[in-house]
């Protein structure tokens, strides 16, 4: 394992005490994980690209990727832990990993090789409810007479009307009075559309992860674009 370049305390922007402590703890945890204990020479550092990040699937992913440690926090803090420039990087070429941390990205420190990690990531995908801004994966058009709304209790009818759907309550059942376009394939969802999809129980978001880049023993490799 290359010799660590750690030589001074991490300096963070002045923030509230608890937030600062969390940032310092994150930096220390990342650095401690990368600086392999004596007798363990193999260490891989991965940049994991997250698509449709959700807290619950991310928690499960941490378990799947054990014995590795998955870190997800402020990008600038994770970059700080690695060293964003050659002169302050923790180990040779780790600044290149830091440069890859942008958007929805996480860090994984593991002794498992890329093929093993890739297989774990490919085997774990979770369907979830889409958020506003996500792109609709299909067009959903509700028409009068279909049974989509009949499964919902009558006391939910005001909620559907509040969301802009032309509904009424008849004989205790919710009926649609006219065509209602929930969403259109390929177009970003509005906040209202995302709420309607969630109420209808339609999941359009897919939580999945891929390896964007990895580092091992001073060697950096970019996988994603």
TrEMBL record:
Keywords: Cytoplasm, Nucleus, Ribosome biogenesis. One of its GO terms (cellular component) is cytoplasm. GO terms for biological process: nuclear-transcribed mRNA catabolic process; ribosomal large subunit assembly; rRNA processing. Residues 130-202 form the Large ribosomal subunit protein uL10-like insertion domain. One of its GO terms (molecular function) is RNA binding. InterPro entries: Mrt4, Ribosomal_uL10, Ribosomal_uL10-like_insert, Ribosomal_uL10-like_insert_sf, Ribosomal_uL10-like_sf, Ribosome_Assembly_uL10. Pfam families: Ribosomal_L10 (PF00466), RL10P_insert (PF17777). It is found in: Cytoplasm; Nucleus, Nucleolus. Belongs to the universal ribosomal protein uL10 family. Associates with the pre-60S ribosomal particle. Component of the ribosome assembly machinery. Nuclear paralog of the ribosomal protein P0, it binds pre-60S subunits at an early stage of assembly in the nucleolus, and is replaced by P0 in cytoplasmic pre-60S subunits and mature 80S ribosomes. This is Ribosome assembly factor mrt4.
């Amino acid at each position: 394992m290359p010799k660590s370049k750690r030589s001074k305390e991490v300096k963070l922007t002045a923030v509230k005490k608890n937030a600062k402590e969390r940032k310092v703890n994150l930096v220390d945890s990342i650095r401690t994980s990368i600086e392999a204990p004596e007798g363990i020479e193999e260490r891989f550092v991965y940049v994991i690209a997250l698509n449709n990040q959700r807290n619950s699937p991310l928690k499960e992913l941490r378990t799947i990727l054990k014995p590795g440690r998955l870190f997800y926090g402020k990008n600038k803090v994770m970059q700080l832990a690695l060293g964003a420039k050659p002169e302050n990087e923790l180990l040779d070429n780790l600044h290149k990993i830091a440069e890859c941390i942008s958007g929805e990205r996480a860090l994984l420190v593991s002794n498992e090789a890329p093929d093993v990690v890739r297989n774990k990531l490919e085997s774990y995908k979770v369907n979830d409810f889409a958020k506003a801004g996500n792109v609709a994966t299909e067009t959903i058009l509700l028409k009068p007479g279909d049974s989509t709304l009949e499964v919902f209790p009558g006391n939910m009818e005001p909620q559907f009307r509040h969301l802009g759907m032309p509904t009424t309550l008849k004989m205790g059942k919710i009926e649609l009075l006219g065509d209602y376009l929930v969403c259109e394939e390929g177009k970003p969802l509005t906040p209202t559309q995302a709420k309607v999809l969630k109420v209808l129980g339609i999941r359009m978001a897919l939580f999945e992860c891929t390896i964007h880049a990895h580092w091992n023993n001073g060697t950096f490799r970019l996988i994603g674009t």
